[in-house]
Amino acid sequence: MIAAMGGVAPESRVPERAKIVLLSLILVAAVANLNLSVANVALPDIGESFDSSQTALNLIAVGYSLGLAASVLWLGALGDRYGRKLMIILGMLLAIPASIVAGFAPNEWVLFGARLVGGISAGLAYPTTLSLITALWAAGPARTRAIALWSALGGGFAMLGPLLAGVMLEFFHWGSIFLVTIPLALLALYMAIRNVPAHVNESSDPVDNLGGILSAVFVGSLIISINFMPVPNAKTVALVLLCVAIVAAVIFFLRERRASNALYDLPVAARPTFWVAACAGIIVFGSLMGAAFINQQYFQNVLGYSTVEAGAAILPAVFAMVLVAPRSAKLVQANGSRRTLLSGQAFIFLAFLGMFLLWKEGTSYWIVMIPLLLLGAGVGLSGTPSSNSLTGSVPVKRVGMASGTADLQRDLGGALMTSIFGALLAAGYASAMGEIIDSSGKNITESTQASLQLSYASAEDLAKQHPQYASQITSAAKQSFLDGDRWAYIAAMVAVLIGMALVFRFFPKKEQEEALRFAYHARDQGADAATSPPPLHVPAPGEGPAVISGHVSPPESHS
Known about the structure:
4 domains; single chain; disordered N terminus; 21 helices; disordered C terminus; globular; mainly alpha; Growth Hormone, Chain: A
């Protein structure tokens, strides 16, 4: 059995019944991915039901990814130590009551709490899926293909969430969208119990629980502080939470430098094939989640799409992602991770540029579709090299750290970018609505102005209460929303450019990447890389990373 195998596995190694094992892991990942995006299409309905502020809607949208991002490193380490299959089972079991509470939530804060717990359930199960792929499939083309399929279908399920939710909303209350994943969770639980191997390359090292708590405090306080930043009467709370996040990050860093059983191996994380891929992935996947959050509101609020139409509108992105992602594995093998990552990031930048320039009130869907195709292709290209670089840069005993980081790319990235986009949308909307009110010259009470500036949903509710002014209020709300979402798209383009600069400057080229990985593997196995075949190319000074006697010098430049 694979669990008993030690040393360096042959590149042909795959688990018994590989296809059914991979399907089981993808189903587990599908539960997490569906829940990530299923709320987005219902945000207008939720906002109307609870008369929510834009900030409350932001927190509901980000709650799931917040719970996942805050817990994923700690729970990934616990899975490495106590059993990855056990973590999958616990995660699927917890997902069911979390979905039920979300479906019947009496107010927006109970809904946020249920989403948060649902994210923690995904933190138990989701990182384990990539950990097991890395542990069960030997490094090489077979593993890269498995990761590509996992990445493509995972992203596809995340993007299909709004369509499924849109169909449900046509016939049922908005709470039904949180119940729809329960049958999938039950199926994934059954498949995991029946097919997923247990005790595969598990660690016997103790878990750094203090590091886990610090990582959760850091991520949670950072994300919530970003969401509260644009709220006028919550700036003090936001600043306090930001200070808590900074202190927790500093203590976490000091702890991980000194702990004998560090939760996060900082020397491994400093490898360029690891940290650059992690940063790029945070921006790539975060941009996808942030775009889904903004776009669903744009489709319904500005273009007037029904929930089904809004959910179906993103299908071109799903199609492009699923089509491109499996082919990205071949591009990684042929051209290396660096070039493939840069290509994907370029597509994502063009997608946000298209949203900024083309998406207006009354824009034809044929125009709307162009940026969505670019976005799907960009994420499909970028996902495989990013996740594959992480898992290929760590020893097998640290695979939970790699898979946890791969999940952080999606979930911390999603929480960060959704929070930033949402904060900019809220601030831009309120500012634009304030300017429209001031320019109108009408005598508007403070309470009415506050309702108009609170959110699009609040303005729509006010329009229903005052039908004589409904068209003016709705027109002002649409224009204010468009002004706010442009702030978000500018931020997205800046973030993608930063990610491209990091990859261009610091990620090694194909030959250098292969040499680095071989040296990392030799070092992690306790072997001397200088005496291990095959012989490696030693670049000239300034050309790239040198591999000499198992020591890898950091690259000076990769431009």
